[in-house]
Predict the 3D structure of the following.
Amino acid sequence: MSEEQVTQRKHEVERHGREDLAGEHLVADRGQLLFAFAFVLVWLLDSFVLRWTTFLNGQVSLWIRLPLAAVLFGVAIWMVKSGMTAVFGREGHDDRVVQEGAFAYLRHPIYFGELLVYLGCLMLSLSLMGAVIALGAAGFLWWLCRYEEELLVERYGEAYRSYQREVPMWIPRPRRNLGSR
């Protein structure tokens, strides 16, 4: 474990008071907040004030976009709630690869839920400027996922590698045997 990883591990234990969490990057929360703030600011300004890149709103009916946004927000809420419950609501905090709830379908359901919120907002107002910020956020979240997966492989070894082979990072796919989870 590198010196940076040791420092980040100490930060994670101090932050959550739990040894069983693999950890997240020190800039994870700040980066997510920065992207969220930038997205909301740009999306609101472009959607309701400037209207520089919202020309697609006239091409796609609001009656199509509203139900899509509602579905995206609903799935996002389930992903985040299920993921947070699986990680932080566990009794006993056993040290193992979490595979319950949304983690049975995606390795990073909380980050995926965050992306769905961006997409839901973009469905409400098709702001291309907002989409650029959302793409930046997606890249940042992908980088966080890769970082966290390195920690998880280091911590759980073959158990996590097997989980990586079985469960996709972000894009859910039909499972062959849904009864196994």
Notes: The mean pLDDT is 88. The helical segments are 3-16, 28-50, 62-88, 109-124, 128-156, 158-166. The radius of gyration is 18 Å. Residues 128-156 form the longest helix (29 residues).
